[in-house]
Amino acid sequence: MVPESPTDNDKSIIDWIRYTVACAFLLPCFLVIVVFLKYEGAWSMWLSLFLSRGIYIVLATLIFGCFIITFFKNKVQGYSRGDSRSDESWCSPQDLWKTPHLSVCGDLKSLSRKPFLLEDVYDSDAVKQMLREADTRNEALKRELEELNKTRIDLEERSGALEREKAKVEERLEEAKYQSALESESLRKEAAITQRQLQQVLEVSDEKEMLSREVSSISRETRITESALKDQARLTTRLEEARAELNRLKLQMEEMKMERDTAVAIAADLAVRAQGAADDSAQLIGQWVRREMENRRKKGNPSMGSTVETDEVSYSTQNIERENSQNEKTELFQESVSTSLETEENQMFLNSMQEEMDHHKVHLDMNADEGTIINYLPTVGTMKNQETACKHSVAAQ
Hints:
Keywords: Coiled coil, Membrane, Transmembrane, Transmembrane helix. By secondary structure, the protein is mostly helical. The protein contains 11 helices and no strands.
């Protein structure tokens, strides 16, 4: 076997050790010089100090150098062990892509560089043995290269398959992106449609609220119109009632006018006939005129007579006794009128008749609600005219 020559790393380590030891020996000298230049003491003192304390500095330097040497030695041994392990496991699948460690080639190169030294030191058998080992290593390297080529081909095929799969995956991703874009577009369209529908629903709800308000306002208006129609119907009924009342009052006025005319005619006739009657006979004439007018009113309008009866109940109940006496007086008056008509009593009768008419006018004003002739009695002038007419008739007789 050929001994291995020291490598560049070993040489560098040895050089570093030498430098360290030299620095360790030079450091005390440097310290002594620095102290001497600084303090400029006696040579004897500094020499004794160097001899007494320098040994400790030298020992510390040696110990430090030993530590450095052991550290670098362990590091070199670790590198050598790593190289041997790489030689043993150079065909592992983890180091397929790394450059192979060709230690045999290095040995061959070293042999080719120093052939004469080998011939001098070793014999031919050792060289042959080394050549055989080199051949075996070459065969192993060839087999490893073939395996590496096969693995490279397999890796290329796998890489091609991976590329194809990658292309397929990219196509699928593109298709998925396209589908997602289409779906997002469709979702956007659906969102817009739903937004429009929501707006339409809101508009419909607003219209519904407006319609409900209009319906409520229309219902209020209908209620108002119904109440107005009811009020109008009430007013029309009241108006009709008022018209009927006016008609009734007109009829009453006409009846009162007729009664006035009849009363005036009867009074004139009685005044002509009873020219010489006394005061009692004048009262009897007034009662008889009133009764005659009531009888004619009942005969002319029975319905109005019934209403007048209801209105005159209170008056008739108060004057029942007086009417009985007046009936007796009317009978006496008729007898006196038929028996004696003297000229001297006519003047007295006319005077009493005028007073009686004034008295009856006041009495009729007090009983205005009984339907008598209040405002239609003849005035004083008309009575005077009737008096003059009666005088002329008496003179003619």
